[in-house]
Predict the 3D structure of the following.
Amino acid sequence: MIRPILIHPDPRLKKVCAPVPDISDDLRKLADDMLETMYDAPGIGLAAPQIGVMDRVIVMDCVKEDGEAPQPMVMFNPEVILNSDDTNVYEEGCLSIPDQFAEVTRPKEVKVRWLDRDGNLQEQDFDGLWATCVQHEIDHLNGKLFIDYLGPMKRQMITRKSMKLKKERARS
């Protein structure tokens, strides 16, 4: 089921999410809905708070080439346990801040630990776009948006544009 995506500014996007105590059928259904919502948007990542659910759940799929098989990932309670000193700069966007993009510097490589759909502990190294995406989505679980990495002028400008879009969508 495709769920509505919250648009910034929304107070829920600035809250820290609670860890999930165990993996239930309801959480697996939530993850399926999140993947469907993300692909429909279309996006490469989505965090539970973006659809108003305050649990530590993210989904992502950074495969963008036509003809390449999708690689959907579901992570419960993800955490970065190691990051590189080397950094990458990517132009980031966000489904909760539509049509706005800015360059963000993040660690180039990260090691992430999470629970999978079956409750098994997983660890994996990510680099490039995958590393940027997983860090961006984990930030959402901590109440942080990509615009929080920007200077105050740029952040205010993007927030104003987002508020205008939110009002336009509310009217239609």
Notes: DSSP finds three helices and seven strands in the chain. The longest strand covers residues 73-83. The chain has one domain: 11-171.
